[in-house]
Specification:
Oligomer: single chain
Distance between the termini: 24 Å
Radius of gyration: 20 Å
Structural class: alpha/beta
Strand order of the largest sheet: 7-6-5-4-8
Helix content: 25-40%
Number of helices: 10
Length: 412
């Protein structure tokens, strides 16, 4: 299950979650398995991140560098090795990659949407159901996608292993909750929003394209309500999943800033954007809180290991199946973040190195590099580049080294 624009700390079992947000169904999954609090995306943007989930590759390698560059239908996705291994697969939900909706190989059911450039709409969203555009009047998209997922699970051959890829629109703007939840967050105290935030920072040039121009507090309340509606539908799906014989991964395509650095939205290399929820449950996975750096590029290799299927060609991520089963302790100590210019958003292209302790960011612009000590400064408010020149040099060299590995197609 992949949500959209959901921050890593926005479900109630997560450390740092605001006390006014309660998500009992996501929490139920978290209590049953591994809550991975150090999970990240390699590009904090819808299309590149989704392509990375499917291919196990960085945007540099799969080619979907932003929301404008087309998906190459020759790319091999996780579904093809699964199909070869005998799995029945379904893709239900948000595709949102330029180049047209492909004839997706390896799936028996492909349901997506093309409204609003592939973003979809919360109410009455037409669905492309196995190639047939179908009106869906009177529907709310989070519930509708869940209905299709449950129908597929009920009707598919029961003697065949399966993989369901459910990609929600929620909680992407326009942040429209189901009718019964709208207004439920109107009276919560938002004094805990970042100190640098203010109501109409949403109209700044760097933020105006994010669809939040009616004001920070109003949009944030609707975001929370939309998230509550998402949690309800996750509960419906979990009610029909047997975790004793089914692996479940719950995550998001990127995080979202709500005022940090005077930003609304994603794209930047800061924690609020790159860090995502990652909950994994299923056979042999005990309740735990692993601290290793996991990536969206790791999901496809993990699914394939669980399935006993062949590996994806050119995958750069690695399976964390052994790590969660406590069979392996060797893991990455750092990773590279990359972001390419995405018109019309006023965000410079950038590369970053994230380690267990440090975040080093370099911009393809006149902006100076930035250095943050994540342990002491988790909200990245204090740039230490000038006061820690040696650390900056070490991290810059490592970014150059690891970046070259990624561009050449190496595993990270």
């Amino acid at each position: 299950m992949i949500t959209d624009d959901q921050r890593w700390d926005h479900f109630s079992a997560a450390p740092g979650c605001p006390d006014y947000l309660t998500t009992p169904n996501i929490d139920r999954l978290a209590m049953a398995g591994a809550r991975c609090d150090n999970a990240f995306v390699t590009t904090a943007l819808c299309s590149p991140s989704r392509a990375t989930f499917l291919t196990g590759k960085y945007a540099t390698r799969h080619g979907v560098r932003n929301n404008l560059t087309a998906w190459d239908p020759a790319q091999t996705t996780v579904f093809e090795p699964l199909m070869t291994a005998g799995y029945d697969c379904a893709f239900i939900g948000k595709w949102h990659m330029p180049g047209g909706v492909p004839d997706l190989r390896g799936v028996s059911r492909f349901i997506t949407f093309t409204a609003q450039g592939g973003q979809g709409q919360y109410v009455d969203c037409p669905l492309l159901i196995d190639g047939v555009m179908t009106p869906r009047p009177g529907t709310y998209i989070t519930e509708d996608l869940t209905d299709f997922a449950l129908d597929w699970l009920a009707q598919r051959p029961q003697d065949q292993p399966w993989c369901l890829y459910l990609a929600h629109k929620a909680v992407h703007h326009q942040f429209e909750p189901p009718a019964h939840l709208k207004g439920t967050m109107d009276n919560i105290d938002l004094s805990g929003l970042p100190p640098e935030a203010y109501a109409f920072m949403t109209t700044l040039d760097r933020n105006v394209w994010e669809g939040t121009v009616t004001g920070l507090q109003r949009e944030y309340r609707r975001y929370l309500e939309t998230l509550l509606g998402l949690d309800e539908q996750i509960g419906r799906l979990l009610d029909n999943i047997d975790l004793s014989n089914t692996y479940v991964i719950f995550t998001s395509d990127n995080g979202y800033s709500w005022g940090e650095h005077v930003i609304t939205g994603k794209r930047w290399a800061y924690e609020e954007n790159t860090r995502v929820p990652m909950i994994v449950a299923g056979p042999g996975i005990s309740p735990s809180h692993p601290s290793q750096l996991l990536l969206n590029a790791d999901v496809a290799p993990t699914l394939l290991e669980w399935a006993g299927a062949g590996a994806l060609p050119e995958a750069q991520g690695r399976s964390f199946a052994g790590l969660l089963a406590q069979e392996s302790s060797q893991w990455r100590q750092d990773f590279v973040y990359e972001y390419f210019v995405d018109f019309p958003y006023n965000v410079p292209a950038m590369q970053a190195l994230r380690t267990d302790q440090w975040l080093w960011i370099e911009f393809d612009s006149d902006d100076d590099p930035q250095l943050y000590d994540i342990g002491d400064d988790p909200h990245t408010r204090h740039d230490l580049r000038s006061s820690q020149p040696q650390e900056a040099r070490v991290l810059a060299a490592r970014l150059a080294e690891l970046g070259a590995v990624i561009r050449s197609g190496g595993q990270v």
